[in-house]
Input
Amino acid sequence: MSGGIAQFQAAPGVINLALGHPAPELLPVESIAEIVGSAVLRHGAGGLDYGDPQGPQPTIEALRRRLARVDARVPHQDQLAITAGTSAAIDRVASLFTRPGDVVLVEAPTYHLALRILSDHPIDLVAVPGDADGLDADALARETRRVRAEGRTVRLVYSVPTFSNPTGASLSADRRRALAQVLRTEGLLLVEDDAYRELAYDGEAPPSVWSEDPGRVLRLGTFSKSLAPGLRVGFVTAPPELIQRFTESGLADSGGGAAHFAAVVVGDVMASGLYATTVERLRSGYRARRDALAGAVADHLATFGARWTVPSGGYFLWLTLPGLNTSTLLSAASAVGVEYVPGVRFYLDGQGGEDSLRLAFSRYSADELREGVARLARAVGSATRRGTK
Ligand SMILES: Cc1ncc(COP(=O)(O)O)c(C=O)c1O
Output
């Protein structure tokens, strides 16, 4: 799978709808090349030195202006820090805010690689069942009390409340309020993975849970989806005393601000106006791909009793094929040249999602997406005839 400089390359001829990666042609290569060149000269040694532990101040200011447009609350200067992307931030949060043996509650289903990152730490993960509309606050309160009744410490809750990976679902306004209320009454801290906020296709993204209660949420944002994942730049908005845990850590003392030069570049990209135009271009490009994928699913898979919801943002469509085991189906799908991620991967210990799967519409063109779904339908058709369970 490797051998180049990118993480993954699909095998020739395969339409790999498992990959939650950007469309290469939508990455703003030339404009970033220009900005990187001018950033080196404009910022001189300051860009190449160790960085401010909070992040470059022009980037922080540009980000505050951007959040004023795409969220319901603007972080104060001391409520924000730059990270090296959300994956690194999840790892940092687990290092800084948990102790061995603590419990971290995770939504089910949830971003499978967040489960992998958290599993690198000596903590226990416990699933909180969600439904098609995302995390259920009552279930969160029940699970918290059940775990505490066993004498264990619930340290954090991890969730993707907006344009979720894998389901595409967003919490309704009522559910966001109910969630913030449970965070307060149970004394919980939410790790809100807000990776897809900028990729909204049917109007603006709903306000973050952080904006609902900035005292109880670590909201993790990233420029991976709205600009380019190779930059490895993201951010966290959180109460000032928690931001200080990042900026006054041993890692910051030794290495300075996270991804410093790339964060300087991101600040320039925002200040130049390129960021806003890139996000607009991504929104229309991915919206068209979302529509192509959803249309193809309706055309080819409805006949098998498939269920899905058309996502209003993000990269993914979650598909349920009642009666089929999507882990078993994968080899038939691979044989006809299409890949996806089986639903079980998004559940702790594979406890759920047997008949579901995740399709990414980010990487491939509309025509390739339609062809990918036609191939998937062939695999489903033959499995249905064989009665695969
Ligand atoms: C929900 C979610 N969080 C985090 C990430 C990774 O973010 P980053 O590239 O900033 O590490 C992804 C990428 O697929 C994602 O889907």
Notes: The pocket of pyridoxal-5'-phosphate is lined by residues 20, 85-87, 111, 160, 165, 193, 195, 222, 224, 229, 234 (CB under 6 Å). The longest helix spans residues 274-301.
